TrEMBL record:
Gene3D superfamilies per the UniProt record, alphabetical: Glucose-6-phosphate isomerase like protein, domain 1
One of the GO BP terms on file: carbohydrate derivative metabolic process
GO molecular function, one term: carbohydrate derivative binding
Positions of transmembrane segments: none
Name the UniProt record assigns to this protein: SIS domain protein
InterPro entries assigned to the protein according to its UniProt record, in alphabetical order: GutQ/KpsF_isomerases (IPR050986), SIS_dom_sf (IPR046348)
Length: 92
């Protein structure tokens, strides 16, 4: 088999294993966390660095109701830098 296709299949298999593991280990606290977020009134601020930051941004853009005011906080990378934040526009 072509080495590129082998790598693609391995990556897909890894994703499948991760999803199945997540499904098998679902915890009631996940539902509770989602309910708390959806019941949130006002502003919701999400932060993260690296991949967790990317996941946080995607979560804000894709999964939250349009009536929320959404912010993503970018942590300081240098002690002298001012933290930045930006408003994520609600989806319309």
């Amino acid at each position: 088999m072509d080495p590129i296709f082998e790598k693609i299949e391995k990556a897909i298999d890894t994703e499948i294993e991760s999803i199945l593991y997540f499904r098998k280990n679902l915890d009631p606290s996940i539902k509770q966390a989602i309910e708390l977020i959806l019941e949130c009134k006002g502003k919701l601020i999400v932060t993260g660095v690296g991949k967790s930051g990317d996941v946080g941004k995607k979560f804000l853009l894709l999964y939250l109701p349009q009536e929320h005011l959404l912010f993503f906080y970018i942590p300081q990378t240098q002690p002298t830098e001012t933290p930045e934040s930006f408003r994520v526009k609600t989806l319309s």
